Structures are given as C-alpha cells and as structure tokens.
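A reminder from the course coordinator: this example appears on the midterm review sheet, so study it carefully.

Given structure:
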C-alpha cells in the first residue's frame, strides 16, 4: 500500500440553507471540520451511525450536493485542489460513485449499456455480470425491473468495470448474499491493490475489517478517529476515541453493549466536543471543540485520548 494521498479532505464543512417557521431562513451545518484521506492502493472504510455525514461527504467530493448546500474547506485530488470544474470533468471518469439507490441509474436505458459506460466493452459487461450472478437477460432490463439485490449488483458492476482511479462505494453490500458481498469486496480489494483508492462507506464493520486497510469513524458530521483496521481487530484498548471504543463494544461478537443517549441532531449540536454529552470522560475542557491529532499511529479528535 502506498502512503501517497489520492484524496485529501481538509476541514470540510457542509451546511444547508433551510426555511423555518414564518419563512425564516436559517443555516444548518451537517458536516463540520471533517478531515480524512484516501491513499493510493488502499481501502478506507468510513463507519458511523446514520446521520453522521458519510454519504454527504461522498456527494461533496463528487460535487453532487443540492443547490442549497454551502461547502467550506479543501478537497484535494492527487495533490490538486478539486474545483467545481474539476469535479465535473473527473466525475464518472477518474472518480466514480457506487450509490446506495437504483435511482442513480438512467430509467430509460438498459442496465447492460449503463454498466458498459463510456469505455467498457460488451465482453467486460458480460464477464462482470456472470461473476455477480446476473443472467444474460438482465442486460436488457430497465432499472425498474430489477429486484433490490439485482440493482445492488448492477451498481457495483458499474464501478468494477470502470477505469476510475478513485472509487467511492456508498453501502455497496446490503441486500446481497454473503457470497456475493464477499465477491464484491474482493473486487474492491483487487482494485486497491492495482493502485486505485477506494472509499468504502459502510455499516457492516465486520465485513469491512476483512478487506479495509484503515477505518475512519464519523460522529455527528465530523471525524472522531482514523485507525488501522488491525487496531479494530486487536480490541478496544488499541483504539483511541471513547465513541470508537463504544462502537467496537457494540459489535455482536464483543458483547453488543450499547451506550446511553443518541447522536445529536445537526440543527442542535452541543458546544465543544460533539460526543461529550454521552462521554464518561468529559471534563470542563471538553467545552472547547478539540482538533484532530496524531496518536499511536492513528488520528483522534479527543483531548483525553491516550
């Protein structure tokens, strides 16, 4: 695995202009000071509960946020600032998204043609369909004719067949059988081993740990920890942030121990550390928002982490 960064997200913030009662306009920040990198030749798994900003990060990188979004911070691709013009130029070519929903497919085009894309061949399309258990007749189907599992396999096929250097896979495995999910993950691993960068957004931390190099943990729209996958396999003591440790303990094989409280709503974030209201280690110093810092070979956003 290379240490060169293919993608570098620095202090990213995303907010939306919304209307409240009486048509009062207000800004709701959903991502704040989020930093993360994807290296050439690695799979970075992005984990965190729903609403933590995982999919919004993907959309910000690709430049497909809605018009009422406001973006601050820097996104670099291969050491160059990713401008709106660059996003439009690279999207679907050097950078590709495996989306969650079949709604991203063209409803008026056969799925086989969509999987082939601009540079793919009929032979490649047929080969990848066979690998994912899609019969030949599927290529002549329209998206609305696909079952949920078929649609997921078609979406994964679009990324596998592409020449993209950066692949962002947003929950690519739900609805797939264990065997097909492992096949898909094996493909992402092969693409990373070829020198590409893969950002895997997932709730299936168990599956991700088998294939990923590093894990980035999000909470309430920011990065709380980035750790080697090996740290998760080693146990809670190898991890750094209280939320990451709680996430590890909540895994079924680790006792399924939930923690009290809920992730705060984007429109009502606490001051200072976003996890402080649920944290047993909180002190007066936690009323100031901590910055992410290097620690024990990883990165953490907590002043008490050791």
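Designed residues:
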């Amino acid at each position: 695995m290379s240490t060169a960064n293919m993608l570098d997200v620095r202090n990213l913030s995303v907010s939306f202009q919304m209307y409240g009662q009486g048509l009062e306009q207000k800004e709701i920040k959903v991502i704040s000071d989020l930093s993360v990198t994807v290296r050439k030749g690695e799979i970075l798994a992005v984990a965190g509960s729903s609403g933590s900003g995982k999919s919004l990060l993907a959309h910000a990188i690709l430049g497909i946020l809605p018009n009422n979004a406001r973006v601050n911070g820097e996104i670099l691709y291969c050491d160059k600032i990713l401008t709106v013009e660059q996003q439009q130029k690279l999207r679907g070519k050097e950078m590709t998204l495996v989306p969650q929903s079949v709604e991203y497919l063209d409803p008026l085009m056969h799925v086989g043609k969509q999987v082939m894309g601009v540079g793919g061949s009929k032979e490649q399309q047929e080969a990848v369909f066979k690998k994912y258990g899609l019969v030949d007749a599927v290529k002549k189907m329209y998206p609305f004719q696909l079952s949920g599992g078929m649609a997921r396999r078609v979406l994964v096929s679009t990324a596998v067949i592409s020449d993209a250097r950066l692949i962002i896979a947003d929950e690519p495995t739900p609805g797939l059988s264990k065997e097909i999910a492992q096949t898909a993950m094996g493909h992402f691993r092969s693409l990373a081993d070829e020198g590409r960068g893969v950002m895997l957004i997932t709730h299936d931390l168990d599956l991700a740990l088998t294939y990923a190099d590093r894990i980035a943990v999000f909470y309430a729209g920011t990065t709380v920890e980035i750790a080697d996958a090996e740290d998760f396999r080693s146990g809670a003591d190898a991890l750094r942030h209280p939320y990451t440790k709680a996430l590890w303990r909540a895994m079924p094989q680790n006792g399924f121990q939930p923690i009290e409280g809920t992730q705060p709503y984007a429109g009502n974030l606490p001051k200072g550390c976003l996890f402080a209201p649920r944290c047993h280690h909180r002190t007066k110093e936690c009323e100031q928002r901590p910055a992410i810092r290097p620690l024990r070979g990883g990165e953490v956003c907590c002043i008490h982490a050791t």
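The CA atoms of residues 156 and 184 lie 7 Å apart. The mean pLDDT is 92.
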